[in-house]
Amino acid sequence: DLTELPSVFTQCIILSSVIGFHRSGVVVGSKVKLKRRSSFHSERSARHGPVFTQEPSDSVFPLRSEDNKVFINCKAKGNPVPHYKWKVDGGYIDMDLNYNLVEGNLLINHPHATHHGGVYQCIATNVFGTIVSREAKVQFAYLQNFSRKSRNTVSVREGQAVVLLCGPPPHNGEIKYSWVFNGRPSFLLQDTRRFVSQRTGNLYIAKVEASDVGNYTCVVRNMMTNATAYSSPTPVVLRRDAVMGEYEPKIEVQFPESLHVTKGSSVKLECFALGNPVPSITWRRTDGNPLPGKIKINHSNGVLEIPYFRPEDAGVYECVAENSRGKNVAKGQLVFQSVEHLQWVQTLKDVHMAIEANLQWECKASGKPKPVYRWLKNGEPLVLEVRMACGRLAVPRINLLDSGMYQCLAENEHGAIYASAELKVVASSPDFSSSPVKKSMLIQRGGEVIMECRPHASPRASISWRRGGERTIMGDGTLRISNISESDGGRYTCVARNPFGTSSSTGTLVVKEPTKITVPPLSVDATVGESIVLPCEVSGDSSLDPTFKWFFNGKLIDFNRQDHFEMIGVGSAGDLMVRNIQLKHSGKYVCMVHTVVDSVSAAAHLIVRGPPGAPEGLIVGEITDSTAQLSWESGPDHHSPVTTYSIQARTPFSIGWQAVRTVPDSVPGQMFHATVIDLNPWVDYEFRVVASNNVGVGEPSMQSKQIRTKAAVPEVAPSNVSGGGGRRGELVIQWEPIPEELQSGEEFGYVVAFRPLGTSTWKQTVLASPDASRYTFRNDSVPPLSQFEVKVGVYNNKGEGPSSHVVVVYSAEEEPSEPPSRVWTRTLSASEIEVYWEPITQTEGMQESDAEMVRVTDTAALLSGLKGSTVYLISVRAQNSAGAGPSSPAVNVTTKKPPPSQPPGNIEWNLTNSKIFLSWEHVKAMGNESEVTGYKVSVVSVIAGSLKTRKQIMALQVPSGEDYLIEIKALSDGGDGSSSGPIRIPKMSSKRELFLSFTIHRMNFWHNRFKVSRVPSTKFCLITMNPTGTMCLLKSVFVFFRS
Fold it and tell me: Which ranges carry the Fibronectin type-III domain (predicted)?
């Protein structure tokens, strides 16, 4: 029996067709049409009930003399704009001098703590209904004055304890207590002997001293209004009749035995004891755990504060007061209180429903304790006939009077939350304006068509279709026609009826021939690099244009972004060409053909054969000095079986990867292991495996970890053993050192053995350096150029290896004992001297010039780069491998004067036919220069050469069609003089005659333009032009000619 439950705690409600309203007499015309909410363009233009955007909340306002106004906020949106009312403590507020509305906000003028404190609620209303806000508790913080009545004198013995009562005046809001002693400007300092409780405001003095005599005033300050009140002084006097003796602590201020604390809050525990001597205060937990590091202990251990309370902070806390007479303990338990604030899990949404429909709403909220629910309609509790305990509201067969604003209220002991929604009941005749039957429907013969008929109607309309034939009307009024034939084409009309009217909508069904793929793509195999064409041709209704699309592995091919794919064919063909096929092109290809009526598709698979992928899991097994065991796993074969595997190796001494010999010599594709042979001992190797098939050679595997073969005795002897030379008494032996990769182990070195030719005893020496390539044996008793048999062997820490073949090496010879004879010289120019001499037997010549020496093997030497008009002393001595002999007597020789420094000037040239005529001024030598003996004309073209003359003119016979560079130098006994610089003679066409004559110092010519520098005078410019024109520079004036 749920009737005994108070309506305020009703959790689930089902409304019958009667909800406190009389429904009879409601008439709705058949032409009434209500638009659905979705048809409105924006929330601003949509008409809807009120929705709160700002609600009042619990508040404490400071009540000060200068504050004469208080605002309580409330704001709602709606169309039309809502109007507002307010309640306080359940009753409506009459707007008067104290209350005013500012938009939706409530303004309280000259608030009074007693008259205006209470529980406020905002009500917003428009034509669609009413909603109420959450309840807000409004309080005012204030502090009244103490009574001015005088306080009694407190008499106390020295050593006794005393408690001075504060007795605060009426107040609201957080306050703070302090005490003033003898009217001093500062507050009384608290210590282990004096304590002010913030719970009672009392002053506790554990042990009175003579200095405590005086007047004590309690000071109370409101933390919100900052108002302060002072009590009347309490006089404290000292009794002289006796002195209080020592006694054990008595805890006068202590915390509750049990205290519930919520998560994240801050809790303060007070503890203070009276006693003589003054007790000390300590804190601890009874479970033995240490106090949390965040704990604060203030006022000489009289207050313990735990900020940000967590579950682990819960437990029993002890305050221990102790002095020399004993101790006392106060205990209290802090209990963690798990409070979850109310919040919506499932809220309400506005609904627009057709008349006679069934409404069901559900709201769910989470919180601890578990919430209970109430329902409101337009701000008032619902009049209910049936109740259910699950937060649901059900209204069967709704009518227009059920429209309005509904609110679900979830509440527990910690508060309440509201959820609002609007119910609009719609009644209208069938309307096809927003969803008519499709005007024209194309369908292929043999297919199926579904015609939808979804008019807007409230209540829901009954549907019928006009036209004969086999068809089915689905539950929502949809018409389905299967296995369509040509006879099914035509017009179809949907007729909709409800109590408010009838309406219809017509569409036409057009039957087309189905599309068929006549040439589908076929699965095919291809090799990497080839190109193929996958066909796709269709037949179908000629009035329909097919659209071809190709998919590769489920993804549409974008031909604008794919280099390998191209669609070829027009009309009924859409073939796919795949160019330069790669392994990534293996997969499924689908040709999909779309028309406005139907879609068909056909699929084929392309298998691409390519070189095998890289083998995997390469492992190096047993290793010896010359072999290594390898094993691996096969990689992808890319649709062509692996035929063979080859193994490659790399060392620090090799250039890249090199093929190595294996056992078996050719590793078949079914074998995944092999032995690498002929490796060098004591060398670091990396290996990789390469697979091959009938298509080609694949990618190599990842290289193996670097391994080192075991050491062994060296097997390679030094090569190119030779020797000879050195100084007297030396035998020099040379050889090519063994490369590091052939040394086969550590501590590698050489054993050098030698003996005089014809003897049997070998002399040996050991060279411990692997880089040694020369050994010199010194003994003054060794005759010059005597023969020795020599061999060089090798060794390492594993033993001694082979020696080279025995070769014969000569010891060093003696240095020459006499100088060359008949030394004479010839001066060639200012910078060159030639020296001649008679050689000595079996020696090489050496020529000296001051501090410089020139070594030659002939009987003559050319000294160049000398200074002109300079005297030189020249001597010659012989030298061989043993050293140099004595020098010949010095010979004096003087170089010739330097050549003329001035180049030929005023050069003139004429080019006509195949001859170049040159002329220039004579060069006059200066006093310290050699006289001019002639001139040298050099010609540079395809064939270079030079001519000499004693005159200042010359004619050169040259072929046409080439450019020439000509330079002129003066000749003298001292050598060639300064050059005139290059003179460029332009090529002459064989068809047109170019006759030019210039007096120039320097001239450059390229293509058909001149670049001229320093032209002192112009003789003439006669040009027979070619068709493209040319240019002649006359005294810095450009003259252009064009035929």
Answer: 614-712, 717-814, 819-898
